[in-house]
Fold these 4 entries.
Entry 1:
Amino acid sequence: QFQLQESGPGLLKPSHTPSLTCTVSIGSISISSNYLAWFRQPPGTGLEWIGGIDYTGSTYYSQYLKSRTSISRDPSENQFTLPLSSVTPEDTAVYYCRLRNDGNDYWGQGNQVTVSS
């Protein structure tokens, strides 16, 4: 029913500020009526929640990343975005977007981000 696709940079140098975008194929439903979230999975570790935005536009963030990001959405483009400031090698991970609708979760395939000098 829904399809999500992440896009963004693959290889970055430290201190850059990349932005990841999730494009949602959602038919006639607006993304604004759903809970949208970003996750990441660093090498060899589990999935980590970064933050999300709900149907009211309220945003929620991991305490570890909230100072470095500000999730936004563009319903006209069916997209939501994750900027991440001043990246370091510790930000190397596969980044995933997720949409929750009626208790069902829909995931993108992931976007590998590698931070290396």
Entry 2:
Amino acid sequence: VQLQEWGPGLLKPSQTLSLTCAVYGGSIRDTYYYWSWIRQPPGKGLEWMGVIGYEGDTYYTPSLKSRTSISRDTSKNQFSLQLSSVTPEDTAVYYCARSPHLPNSIVDRYEYDSWGQGTQVTVSS
């Protein structure tokens, strides 16, 4: 399976970030698979943001839960991330990824069997 994410590269503070990940070669409804959003701020490690499962269930990391929403469009085989009220601290490379089980909140690359190429998001006034 291949994943490809896209979205605006530059936002201003207080705006809402919207990213979409298209899935090729598989279905977002495939049983037992989970579809995550993960980001990596400059000079820092990978941060798991949240996930949507094959049944449409969602889970979020507590620190971002109030600003994060993950949804899916099964007709397009895509899932999306919305992050509201962005600040410069949200500047990062954002990835979508697939895991064959509900992932841990601490990112272990080996939990994921497919990653998107990543998209740079910069928040600046």
Entry 3:
Amino acid sequence: QVQLVESGGGLVQPGESLRLSCVASGFTFSRYAMRWYRQAPGKERELVAGITSRGGSTNYLDSVKGRFTISRDNTKNTVYLQMDSLNSEDTAVYFCNAREIWLPHNEYWGQGTQVTVSS
């Protein structure tokens, strides 16, 4: 059974940090590129950060560059999103996504974790 389970969300004040985790099971984690998406109320889901299957390359949404860091531990089947200097515009539900690098490019989603930045 494929699962992506996110954790680490919560309510923080502007300028604070959070670390999201996503634990994968039911598939070969090292064959998958991993991404974090987010969706704010009334807005479309957007790609926040991505990391290649072995962690050699990362990419970020412009508005989070220098503040967020994506990483992965293939021995723990886990991907992380370290979020620093949070602001109100980062408030959203954050989703973990896995996409297989080889055909048939299976894709999986987690259930999401809420991040709220408010004073």
Entry 4:
Amino acid sequence: QLVESGGGLVEPGGSLRLSCAASGFTLDKYAIGWFRQAPGKVREAISCINYPDRTTEYADSVNGRFTMSRDNSKNTVYLHMDILIPEDTAVYYCGAVWRSLACVDPSVNYWGQGTLVIVSS
């Protein structure tokens, strides 16, 4: 399973770091991504560390503000979010895709339960 943590309320311009810890399996054979679903919108992929290259890609909406990283020793990935804006308000999910070059929603094998991020003054 995947368990996210680190969400909360933050003012515009602030920062948060989300964590996604895997248990019961190791992430090294999976592409791992962060997704988010804003109120009234479909879930979108915002970052992905692919397999096997382990290169990281970002959606245009977060590129330059968000940074995804992984700690293999902890079987955990992180999403460091800077310069948050109200449009970043959403439930954030991590998802793991078996041996994939991309993090595509229908292909996700494991989902976390989600963590809520609210950007508001």
